[in-house]
Amino acid sequence: MDNQTLLLVVLIIAMGAFMIWSQRRAKQRYQKRLEALQVGDRVVTIGGIYGKLTYIDLEVDRARLEIAPGVEIEVSTRAISGRVELTAEGE
Q1: CB 3.0-4.6 Å disulfide test: which of 11, 17, 35, 75 passes with 79?
Q2: pTM of whole model > 0.85?
């Protein structure tokens, strides 16, 4: 194998390793954010639904959100995009 081919192979392997490493890191950060969620937190789903967390169980991958007074929906915890901070206007 000549030097150019060897360099190309090394670069491809390095790029693949970097992509796997960054994907694992992002997954770990997301998991930590999920584990930090508590009942009462305001969250948004990946579908854009805002609500207040009324129940969460990471082991069975389920959460309940109150999206309006007296209206709750059940979602997968993987559908929760993150916590939402309230603004000065209430939202």
Answers
A1: 75
A2: no
